[in-house]
Amino acid sequence: MAAKTPEQINEDLMRPLAGVSASYLIVLACFLTIVIAGFAAFGWQIYHGIGVAGIRRPVFWGFYITNFVFWIGLSHAGTLISAILRLANATWRRPVTRCAEVITVFALSIGAMFPIIHLGRSWLFFWLVPYPSERGIWPNIHSPLLWDFFAISTYLLGSGTFLLLPILPDLALVRDLATGLRKKIYTVLAIGWRGTSRQWHRLETAMHIMAIAVIPVAVSVHSIVSWDFAMAPVPMWHSTIFAPYFVAGAIFSGIAALIIAMAFLRKFLHLEEYLLPIHFENLGKLLLVMSLLWVYFVFAERLTTWYGNERSEMAVFWLTQRGSYSPLFWTMVTCNFLIPFPILAIKKLRTITGTFIASVGVVIGMWLERFLIIVPALSHKYLPYSWGTYRPTWVEITITAATFAAMAVLYMLLSKFIPIISVWELKAGLHEKPHPLRAVAQPDQVGAD
Amino acid sequence: MERRDFLKISAAAGATAALEGCGNPDHQLIRFVPEEDLIPGLATWKPSICTLCPAGCGLSVRVMPGDAEVVRKGQLGLLKMGLAKKLEGNPAHPINRGKLCPRGQAGLQVTYHPDRLKGPLVRTGRRGSGQFREVSWDDAIQQLVSHLSDLQESKSEGRLAFVTAPLRGQRKMIIDTFAASFKRSMAVEFAFFDDSVIRSANAASFGHALPPTVDMGESNYVISFGADFLGTWNSPVAQSLGFGQMRKGRPGERGKFVQFEPRISQTGASADEWIPVEPGAEGMLALSLAHVIIAEKQRPAAAAGHAGSLVEGWSQGLTDFAPEKIAAQIGVKPETIRRIAREAAAHDPAVALIGDAAVAHTNGLFNALAVNALNALLGSVGKPGGVLFGPVPAAKQPAASLESWAAQVNSGAAAVEVLLLYNANPVFAAPAVWGVHAALDKIPFIASFGSFIDETSALADLILPDHSALESWLEDTPVSGSGKVVVSVAPPTMNPLHNTRAMPDVLLEVAHRLGGESAKALPWKTYDEAIQASFAALYKEMGSKTAKDAEEFWKKAQEQGGWWSAEESRVTPVSGSSAGAAVKNSAPRFDGNPSEYPYYFLPFASQLFYDGSLAHLPWMQEAPDPLSTVMWGAWVEINPRTAEKLAIKQGDLVEVASPHGKLEAPALVTPGIAPDVIAMPVGQGHENFTRYATGRGANPISILSSATVEGTGSLAWAATRVTLSSVGQGKLILFGGSLSENPPELKHR
Amino acid sequence: MARQWGMAIDLDRCTGCEACVVACHAENNISTVGEEQAAIGRAKHWIRVERYYEGEFPDVTVKFMPVLCQQCDAAPCEPVCPTFASYHTSEGLNGQVYNRCIGTRYCANACPYTVRFFNFYNPIWEKPLQLQLNPDVSIRSVGTMEKCMFCVQRIKAGEIQAAAEKHELRDGEIQPACVQSCPTRAMVFGDLSDPESEVSRWAGSSRATKLLGELGTRPKVTYLQRDSWHGSEDA
To answer: Is the ipTM of this complex over 0.90?
Structure first.
């Protein structure tokens, strides 16, 4: 493949913004319908009462909290990958970073809706916000839910910034290439980016600071989310392993989501020459590492539980291992490890298709993992007389489906308004000095053999 | 005012308005002038009487003013009135001493039930179609009067029949007197769970046709043969008080409680030892215990006195009942029999009780006499810690049985012109084989005083709804539960909500309008007049230390909920009637060939629905049955081995078939039942009994045989055999998530 | 010293009759949820009688244990509530302020005794059943959590009455509905900070245990274990 010129890059990466095809609109409409169905289901729930969902005594949290943890978890990929890769100067990251950052912001936004959706009185969600209320009390700072509120809003703010800052140069590029109304809009959005070296310098500094700052925020977010469970004396929740376990799981699911998003973009936006097999290979290797890490955490937790032989914990343990939740449990293990491991470990299988399949498995597996952490434990707490079951209703299923559809919709829409691959970063990679110890061409030099 | 207070008040006002304004903004309900003196927010406590089971506990009712939607002169409006809000036990009442069972607590819902009949009704459509129209009380009474006056005058064969629950006191007197004023009238008392066998046995053994009052609080050893004395049998609250006292109410002492029955009942669950026994073998078991006591010289045979002499072979020491001889037949190990006998003899006061299924076998009377003899042998009769008989006047000759009455009507032997129904639902609560429904079909005119449409009152031509208990004058003479003489009385705790009338008042007015015999026999204008007259007589007989005249006596009685003697007066057992020759050992007989119908069928009184008459109360439907934890349904209890053998899993819909019918209900697998016994609660399976009970579960009474208890003729409801098979998927709503505290999932490795 | 309300339940007396269950429903305006909702685990029994079978036929025993909010002094439900709907009162109760509750249901998950009940829908009383409602207890709306508070309305009324009559509260003067109705007198309620109160004496019994005490919740309900018959020793 011949090396790409900046003009070629512009053309390739701006093409998606040029217009929409019929098939694009049809697919968008389908997803949008599901999203609207989700809103309708939520409206139904507000009108009739949260009883239309399947939660009950003793399983007071179900699909909604599963989705909450899942989507917040998914959001870790983006920023962490982007931030860590930047700091590590991994040059192959360039086409990947914006995809990743976008996933973070969208997944966070979707996930952050669930603390509202799952409330018995959703319309009072703002009581979680610390403002001087007529009730005369502040929210309870001891509650992990309050920590969630702060952590997620901080993370949303941080990753929003982390996404929007490097978009500026590309917004300016669109502004420069566009005409008419679009030019006017993008002029506003680009907030006066001129590409002066001073501005570039500021941008790089800001990115550097954000890259460092966002990592502890991201780690804290999912630690805090995990503490929603670990702080309660529920058998198999009250475990010290939860914070690192959840963070690892979050990164795991995030990388998988990133691979899936990239695979779709590559195919539908014709970015075959930008999102290369090597990208998928490298991310695949990361996914492999996370899969092994996930297995390690699960094994460590379960070994300790089994060894401890505490009655109530063992009840939950066996429930997932060989009881009524075992089909889901073993599906999860298959999706998170048994299928991905060979695919990702064997170089021949670590192709774009291969990593895509593994990633789909991981997304399913990680959703199941959240479900299996929450529901079996709640269904079998300390007093057997109060054991129960859980079954979701159409409301929860519709809203869950709507979250995936919403992700798709947001992605599809964004890719039409902003280049999904960071144009300026890609171009910057063209001029990057090759590593002194490397004789081989860098993969970020687009088009290089 | 503070903004917060304003919000609170407006929210409260809004809520009240929302609750009572029926959400119809178009027309506000008009407000009627209150008919009583009320102070807003102030609660008063008024005495009353619980009428939901025969125990006759005293109530203390919390009454507070509130807004009720009522109809006055055909107009719907809001009326501020005193409303009963909470029922408690009357602390002063000797029977329940301030305590109340779950059914008593739920009595409040009878008054406020949405399906309560709001006024007199006359049938318009076909009988049983449920089509009625409202009429005025004047019309309704006049209709009844006209049908009855035909009877008074006519020379036809037509008769009056009055079917009621077993009643007591002035209410019974008025009904009996009313019925008796018609030639050849038939007064029939019916309740599925009645104490007629026990009364017969006690009359024979001890000369008192009464259920026993158990002084359990002083007992050291209690043996119960199937009597659910902590749940539904006899006087549960009084017995529970005694039980609590026996267990832990005497520092340093704790009595032992042994329950013999084939299925763990509500009561058996609290036993120190639950020992299964073959159905119907309770009498033999009692005699075996007696044999051991006599043979080991713990008590002389003669100690059992007349009660002992009623048992064949007693004076010879009951050698036929040696444990080793009968162990296999009765299903109890000989060493167990010997041990229990020794323990009981060594720890007096020891007392034995029998009830429920044990006296509902064909040999129920024998079983009861055997236990009476055992009690006499143990020396507990008439003594502290044992059984005594309250000083209650002996019941008159028992009324005709419902079974024979229905048979007579069906055969044409009795031509009943008019049937009056009060507090009885025989179409539901009597076995289908008795043909009660068919008998009712033959009767030209049926009038019901019930407050609800149920299976029986649905067949009425005229309905004259009674007040609910809390809206009524009540009086009662409990027959058991205290050693004191007790005559309860209570004025209404609240004004009637609906256009109902007190049944005795209606009868008195009917009698008045009829004139003649009826009017002469019932001179009072109102029921409370009659009660007051009885209290005047009581004052004359008993005198009073605190009241100076009959007026004051009457007033004080109303204030405290009745009159009771200061001291306990145990009536000594007399030699009793020589009720014929000694009763031979009779083994129970069962209806149904064992090869076709392998299982004993055991209906049992439900802790929540009792005999089904409380199934319409939502609190009772939603409260989990204590042993099964079932809500809103019926179930069939099966032993785990039996279930495995028949490939029945928990929740499967099973068909239970007797020689007389079949029913379907979900299976509940429980270890607390013998493998050859199938048990089912009585109470569900209503076809027509308010929105809460209709179409729910199945009614075990419907498939029972008509076998009777030898010697009394009452229904032997434990004498049916059944077969069982799985027919599909049933629905079990269980509140409890585990049968055991240590289910397999919780076992350590 | 401020009163510390507590309860003791003698399992040797309890017969599982559920008078307490129904009395509680009546006193506290607990709505009936109906068959369909009860089938999916939404029935609200603030006090319930846990029933456990042990053994196999014919050696079967049954254990009854009334379980209600333990008003834990180290309640796991209190730190997790973001709006302080679950909080500890000065008299030792675990308070539930319905108006503050936004329905996160974290408290119900954190409670090891599963004694918290949620209103999944607005309550319904088919007229005129609403007339049975106790005016001293508020109606809870959809989306809020509810549970036993030792009949705090009776406690408050009793305290106010005693103050108005200018006498000290007597032990046993205030009784929650469950305690009042129990036919075997298996339940006792009173001030744990008064060593002479009956509840304190029962709590000092050799049979006294705490349910799930090992979790460190410091519950204020003491269970007196079922005793056994000692007569066989002197037979």
So the answer is: yes
